[in-house]
Amino acid sequence: MGEEKTLGEQAVKSSLGASVRDGVLFSLMTGLGDAYMPALLLFYGATDAAIGLLTSIPYLFSAFAQLLISKTMGAWRNRKNFVTRAVFFHAFFWLAQIALVFSPFDVPLKITLAIAVFALYAGFDDFIYPIWSGWIADLVPEGMRGQYFGYRNKITGLALFLATLGGGLVLGFFTGNLGNALLGFAVLFFLAFLCRLGSAWFIMRMAAIPGSGKEFRTVSWNTLLFHDAWKNARLFIAGAALISFTRYVASPFYSVFMLRNMGLGYAEFGILTSAAVLFKIISFPYWGKLADRFGNRAVLVVSGILVSVLPLPWAFFARFDVLLCTQVLSGFAWSGFELVSFNYILSSAPREQRVSLVSRYNFFNNVAIVVGATFGAFLLSGVLPQVFLGLVALQLLFFISSALRMLVALFMLPRVKEQHAIYPYNDMGFMLDASVIYPAQSVARHVARGIRFAGRVRAPLRSARRAALDAFEKGRKKIRRR
User: Fold this and answer.
1) Residue 221 within a domain
2) Looking at the structure, do residues 421 and 440 belong to the same domain, yes or no?
3) Distance CA 171, CA 187 (A)
4) What is the CATH number of the domain that holds 137?
């Protein structure tokens, strides 16, 4: 971790600020573009299997992209140049999607090509990610990663929330007012293109850390899978991958359930989707502070159990208000799991092997996502009954996803060990504290602050109101005298 010191405190501070702005624009692109790809395919009339492929094939490309990282990363000694050029090129996949929207191709071919372009887009993005993560990890001192990434994720999450919500409103306007949904999708994708170009601009403003041969040592498959020194990293990767598998058994089909089964409009779809993002933003700093105090493992176990119950309301309720509350809990739970997963993998390898380990982690994670989405599509292809005990096939799928997540959360994640000495805790006690006590205390503190603030401003407001009424009364009397 010596390089960031040689850059100077101001250079590091400027680079981390530029990284936040890059993340904001990346999130705007994701909320305007990625979030509405399932809606585009459903507008075309795509089947459940096609929606599953929209998830599984891009992650399959991403998995193979991780294999290329280990083969080629030695050529990218200047990570800044590589990431900047790659991000610039990455933006142009959105222009390809716009071209497909207005192409004269028939609908089945449009669906196929849209999935193919999105797969290339996702694979290219995942090719960039491990190199970017190694670069940013060198810039952020280890002791402040929880705080910095909690802050960064809060800001970028706010951007994602606004983009996702705004995207639904834009589509609703183009569909309802102009009667041209395809033009609405094209506008969203063009805005996503501009945001990715802006992301490349801010990456250019980050400081380059000189590379060396030592920086790019590979974690071999044999070492990762069988060496005792990597046992804990192996357990974490297995647990995280299994959670991804169980998550994506159902995840691609929430859009189908909202737009097709519930018949929601694009605006309501945007509200439900963005609600999870909003509460993810709010929760990142909370989980970041807990991770810095109690360690990544504690937050991993608690958030893993919380995400296990998320599909149950989707399985048993089809009401907008209930699912809105579920999305609030979803944002809270996934923010903890995603934050500590990123922190944990960065801390699981020496600096020179970090990029390689992140690429291995992404490979297993992406393969798990592919298998999960494919398995979900397989179950919907006729294996699950159309209706059982009043539940449609999609709701049965959500229940299965929840049960599988709970098995992983209870029997796999607790086996992961903490990497560093931290504040002592008890698993069950911390589960209660982190999921109930601490959030309730935080809400109570904010309510108390609000009451105190209201008390402080009430007296001046009353005085101002009284003065205004007195002035009005005096003016009225003068007018009467005249």
Assistant:
1) no
2) no
3) 9
4) 1.20.1250.20
Tokens at 58, concatenated:
């891009």
Residues 6+ apart with CB under 8 A from 63: 362, 363, 366, 367, 370
Instruction: State how far the Cα of 62 lies from the Cα of 66, in Å rounded to an integer.
Output: 6
User: CA geometry: angle at 473 spanning 468 and 475, to 5°?
Assistant: 95
**Residue 56 sits in the same domain as residue 199:** yes
Q: Which residue has the tokens 């979900």?
A: 376
Tell me if 304 sits within 8 A of 339, measured CB to CB. Answer: no
159 and 58 share one domain: yes
Judge contact between 16 and 148, C-beta under 8 A: yes
Place of tokens 């834009």: 170
Look at residues 425, 449, 468 and tell me which one is the last residue of a structural domain.
Answer: 425
Listed in sequence order, the residues at least 6 apart from 330 whose beta carbon sits closer than 8 Å to its beta carbon are 276, 279, 307, 310
**Total number of domains constituting the chain:** 2
> Cα separation of 324 and 426, whole Å?
32
Specify the long-range contacts of residues 43-50, CB closer than 8 Å, at least 24 apart. Answer: 43/181, 43/182, 43/185, 44/107, 44/110, 44/111, 44/114, 45/107, 46/111, 48/253, 48/256, 48/377, 48/380, 48/381, 49/377, 49/380, 49/381, 50/111, 50/115
Task: From 312, 287, 270, 302, select the one nearest 160 (Cα to Cα).
Answer: 270
**Is residue 251 situated within a structural domain?**
yes
Residues 277 and 392 in one domain: yes
Reported as a single tens digit per residue, the pLDDT across 266-292 is 889 989 988 988 888 888 778 888 887
Q: Encoding tokens for residue 365?
A: 């994670």
Round to whole Å and give the CA distance between 306 and 248.
Answer: 16
Burial state string for 253-284 with b = 16 or more CB within 10 A and e = fewer than 16:
bbbbbbbeeeebebbbbbbbbbbbbbbbbbbb
Closest CA to 39 of 372, 265, 330: 265
Please state, in angstroms and rounded to a whole number, the distance separating the CA atoms of residues 289 and 193.
35
Phi first, then psi, for residue 318 (nearest 5°) are: -130, 45
Range of 445's domain?
A: 434-482
**Same domain for 283 and 421?**
yes
Determine if the pTM surpasses 0.85: no
Give per-residue pLDDT as tens, 89-120: 999 999 999 999 999 999 999 999 999 999 99
Instruction: For residues 368 and 270, give the distance between their C-alpha atoms in angstroms, rounded to a whole number.
Output: 27
